[in-house]
Hints:
This protein is α/β, with parallel strands linked by helices. The chain has one domain: TIM Barrel. Strands 1-2-3-4-5-6-7-8 form an eight-stranded parallel β-sheet. β6, α11 and β7 form a beta-alpha-beta unit. The longest helix is centred in the middle third of the chain and has 18 residues. The model has no long low-confidence stretch (mean pLDDT 96). 6-chloro-9H-purine binds next to α4. Zinc ion binds next to β1.
Amino acid sequence: MPDTALQPALRTFVRSLPKAELHLHIEGSLEPELMFExxxxxxxxxxxxxxxxxxxxxxxxxxxxxLDLYYAGAGVLITERDFHDxxxxxxxxxxxxxxxxVEIMFDPQTHTARGVAMETxxxxxxxxxxxxxxxxxxTSYLILSFLRHLTEADAMATLExxxxxREQYKDLWIGIGLxxxxxxNPPGKFARVFARCKAxxxxxxxxxxxxxxxxxxxxxxxxxQVERIDHGVRSEEDALLLQRLIDQQIPLTVCPFSNLKLxxxxxxxxHNLARLLRLGVMATVNSDDPAYFGGYVVDNYIACAExxxxxxxxxxxxAQNSIAASFLPPEQKNEHFQALSAYVAENPDKxxxxxxxxx
Length: 359
Ligand code: ES4
Ligand code: ZN
């Protein structure tokens, strides 16, 4: 039974736990209220009468049923200011959740296909992120993600369109990702463009093993040479692969609410995060598309505590993993590890105090 009486105290503890968010699609942070505001500002018609009507439409039965709404929703993003406002709204919310560093994925093809310039997308996000870095001290990186339902040639053209901006945004744009509909779009389809990105010195990630099979996780590692797997929950279906993830400490950016809302799992108690973590997988917890899936990163941590029985110590391990699995340089990771240890030491677990004495 979830211990609801202790939940407020646990939530307070988790909110102030220094953590990184490593799996966040900025377009998936666009809350219905802001979507309506941007639609009005830009004279874009939304096929919903109200914010409530839109929220009611957020009932998904698969990844694709979500993606259809998500791409349609992104249609309100037109100007530099729109990208800025969306990013700023997410960062303000992330601050409340104790996020000290975030690695943000964005889908330029969703925007350039509508006639929005690549520069507009970068400029709006970067203005917000740089402001937040200096005002709130939250660091951030950008991961340009290719849409896997489109061709590799389209991904290559998108990369070429973005490369002239690399110098201008080198403080932020450090990585390349792969997202959108997984089934029928295996990693191998993007082997050449990922090889080029690796040669260019980008950090590489890919969604794999979300709806797709464990084979796609192995292919993402072998054919795309990614350093981190987004989701990866279906890796459990392949014992050899699972052992490899453990041995090589390959991080998984797990998103429990996403898996639930997209019916990758039937109910939260069925999620395998606790099992993965206890086997020694470098698992992290993230929000994916928080505006669509009903919760931000702390909500995801708390749901895992409640439904999977994660201990307070395991929640601390998740926060530790999020720093370890980030693309931050070692010195910055160490600063966050120290802050984390200090926070835990200052907030002893009254229910399960660390054992004193020698044994
Ligand atoms: C996504 Cl949950 C998920 N999976 C794949 N691609 C995505 N893009 C945005 N959210
Ligand atoms: Zn995702």
